[in-house]
Amino acid sequence: MGYLQNLQLRRKWQTEKPNLKEGDVIMLRDKDVARGQWPLGVITETIPSRDGLVRTVLVRVMKDGKPSIYKRPISEVVRLVD
Q1: Where are the domains positioned within the chain?
Q2: How far apart are CA 28 and CA 40, in angstroms?
Q3: CATH entry 2.30.30.30 includes domain 17-79
Q4: Given pLDDT bands bounded at 50, 70 and 90, which one contains residue 16?
Q5: Cβ-contact 46, 19 below 8 angstroms
Q6: Could you tell me the CA-to-CA distances from 43 to 9, 10, 19, 60, 76 in Å, in that order?
Q7: C-alpha dihedral over 78, 75, 37, 25, to 10 degrees?
Q8: Other C-beta atoms within 10 Å of 19: how many?
Q9: Are 55 and 48 in contact (CB under 8 A)?
């Protein structure tokens, strides 16, 4: 690797983050809604891929007073509490 490439470090995928797990509190990311209005939810089930990492989750969200379950990739959820 050359000198110039070493000046700018790429942080993406350099450190492993813990997998999402059942009971984690999350927000469902929605590009059409302001961030402050993203719905809160709780992960009810994790779906791991072949490599053992969680890639998809089932999320329970209260909508209009009734619970709804959504299946979302982890790129569409934001963990709130570690």
Answers
A1: 17-79
A2: 7
A3: yes
A4: confident
A5: yes
A6: 33, 30, 12, 6, 13
A7: -30
A8: 14
A9: yes
The Cα-based distances of 66 to 17, 23, 27, 52, 61 in angstroms read 32, 18, 17, 32, 8
Vertex 54 angle, CA 34 and 26, to 5°: 30
Amino acid identity of residue 7, one-letter, is L
Tokens of 17: 């983050």
Which tokens sit at 38? Answer: 């993203």
Give SS3 for 55.
Answer: strand
The two three-digit tokens of residue 24, written as one number? 């984690």
39-62 per-position pLDDT tens digit:
999 999 999 999 889 999 999 998
